[in-house]
Fold this sequence. Notes:
The protein is mainly alpha-helical and about 250 residues long.
Amino acid sequence: MYFILVFTVVISVFPVLWVLFSSFKTNSEILSGAFMLPSSLRTALDAYTYIFEKYNFVSYFFHSLLVSLGSTFVSLLIYSMAGYALSKFRFPGRNLLFTLFTITLLVPATAKAQPIFSLIVRMGLINTLSGLSMVYVSSGMAMSLFILRAAFLSVPKELDESARLDGAGFFRTFWKINLPLARSGMATAGILMFLNNWNEYYWASLVLITREKLTVPALLSTFTTAFNTNYNGLFSAMVIIILPPVLL
């Protein structure tokens, strides 16, 4: 059993270590394929200095952080209330409505690209971070509702009844009773939404056009041209990009 666990850890950690070591090497050392230390400390530090000076990496990093955190916060605010309503209230078509929401998990992003892109253009939000944030909020609907509805269903209905007997209204019962008890589901949904938004490339490259507004996943594509790939800068950027998810 321990052998299987150690083996699983090794094959999981090895790609991360390989990217980390590669970020400190020159392109020729990376292309050699050898798993070795960089030739010099100066070469190792030049890669990170290069992406911050030439690419203004802090600006792109801030774009990703702003879009990911903002869309996650709005999603949690909206879908927590929707999950509460779908789990606590009895009304005609409730289960059908929940099914229609969750079934969107089966629809790939490429199938939704044309209508969503046209909507963003008509709203005048193309090439804006707010437009990308709206796409992220809607993209996380099915997963968020699925998790948050289950979280609110785990809260005993007797607590809601006691709150109503004490004179608590709809919003107070939701805010004071259910939301604190469903914090594990909120944390799970929030982490998954942040990770998906932070690592997302497809919509970021589709909605954002000018280079100055790109997020960091979309920026990675600029390290590769038709004739050359800057592996040194690419791996250095990847190391910085994976730090927030790892810390989270």
